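Before drawing any conclusions, I needed to go through one protein's amino acid sequence and its backbone structure tokens, quoted below without any editing.
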Amino acid sequence: MAKPAQGAKYRGSIHDFPGFDPNQDAEALYTAMKGFGSDKEAILDIITSRSNRQRQEVCQSYKSLYGKDLIADLKYELTGKFERLIVGLMRPPAYCDAKEIKDAISGIGTDEKCLIEILASRTNEQMHQLVAAYKDAYERDLEADIIGDTSGHFQKMLVVLLQGTREEDDVVSEDLVQQDVQDLYEAGELKWGTDEAQFIYILGNRSKQHLRLVFDEYLKTTGKPIEASIRGELSGDFEKLMLAVVKCIRSTPEYFAERLFKAMKGLGTRDNTLIRIMVSRSELDMLDIREIFRTKYEKSLYSMIKNDTSGEYKKTLLKLSGGDDDAAGQFFPEAAQLKGTVRPANDFNPDADAKALRKAMKGLGTDEDTIIDIITHRSNVQRQQIRQTFKSHFGRDLMTDLKSEISGDLARLILGLMMPPAHYDAKQLKKAMEGAGTDEKALIEILATRTNAEIRAINEAYKEDYHKSLEDALSSDTSGHFRRILISLATGHREEGGENLDQAREDAQVAAEILEIADTPSGDKTSLETRFMTILCTRSYPHLRRVFQEFIKMTNYDVEHTIKKEMSGDVRDAFVAIVQSVKNKPLFFADKLYKSMKGAGTDEKTLTRIMVSRSEIDLLNIRREFIEKYDKSLHQAIEGDTSGDFLKALLALCGGED
């Protein structure tokens, strides 16, 4: 079994089997394969319950007892994906990697994705073992074979990685970090063409700890994450390899969580990738991969495997996963809670932060990087503590100082983050209603998506800040059915219980009648309109989901599409927003973010409002929905549509690239 570093906790899902007896296991496997057919349950149960070290002992005992090769017998008795998975588990890890690479470069064409995955993710020690295993198994030189099957900069980087000579010193030189940042910048963004050799040398040799600091400084210096420069300067398999290296430097488990998700999403399953990762990571970091998978994709790795595979193949994969993070007692607390991207800073010191912000704004010029770094990495509660401390120390108002030092989109974003959430929402509602014209979209977005508690807090903040009730403001600035909808939402009286099936069917009938697709209308139109508004504005989310299901059963139509077809104007937009929020609130915001950056020009107000208001609530979920629907990450969309310090602050709030 792979041993964790000294002092580190073991994070594999497969452990040494207590009371292990290799002779007994060898006999059980021989019996399972003896005669007509084979006992696949017995085979998978034994092999997935033993560590790799123990499996090698079973192989030796099998040969001693029966004079036969266990792997050869397993290949003969099993077939398909199940056979590939079981045989992969029986090989020592380095020999398993060697076999994968041999298959990737054999025959016509090359499986570049396999080469990238293995060579970008392995440690120095694993790389040395791989080279030796390849030589032993195939009597060939791995470096020579890779050179013979690849070309260009892609080949050069693979060869560098294959040496297994990445620095491993945790002591980092700040001067060297700055030098590497400058060298990478000059090799790419500042150069006509690209000096690929610099990228290869730095990313292929520097320690992980060093490179993480390089990536942080690169963003501060250039306003772009290193991934953006790689995409802009490199191409093809070389670009994919370098991006994989960066991902593994940042977080190897996150890299594999993403690979597993992509292997199973959409039509078809990339079984070779799925098998390779589940085998190779089961005794290294499968628990970390599971945890990240559950947090990032809001479903467990176990449940996705369960829904995407079948038979003994599925049973084996589920055993390797080590448990279901959606089941009671298995769910990672971190995965259940970490839906926002901004969390309270560890070792928070409001005194130090207040002084750093004062220094950043003192004298000629402003240190925007420091302001962004502090404010985007503190929770809202911590920001309020900084405001108090700033006032106590300097007798000055931090918000006023920030307003005088920064401007434009960055100012709106930073000042928004500094306000308590309810006061921020109250201000956004006030701005939507002041001056000529009304920003109906902003009113809908806020009032259709906030919880009862959030709505009540907004009402209090509005009254406190503007000496007028929110209901009065809405009444004087809107009219008709639209006004009635907004005021109903603004009361914060949505039911919070579960579903009621009989009531849901009755509510679905009302919806069908008001949308004019019911066979037998049962009331006057005005009464039906009032009831429909009451249903959408006051019923609980679980109940409304049941209503929508009953509506489909009753009419064969989706309520959202029917509203879009049968209604118009602000009333339609408000009802659609409520329905979308009930169905999937993060997806609602993902759509709003996408539209804010789509086409010519950017709707910075909407972009800012959502990034500020959701950063501590569900921005991780929004990111997941964004990449699922639009096949690009929110990080990439922001990166391609904004610039400068505004871009830096948005990316910091975004919390990472998917």
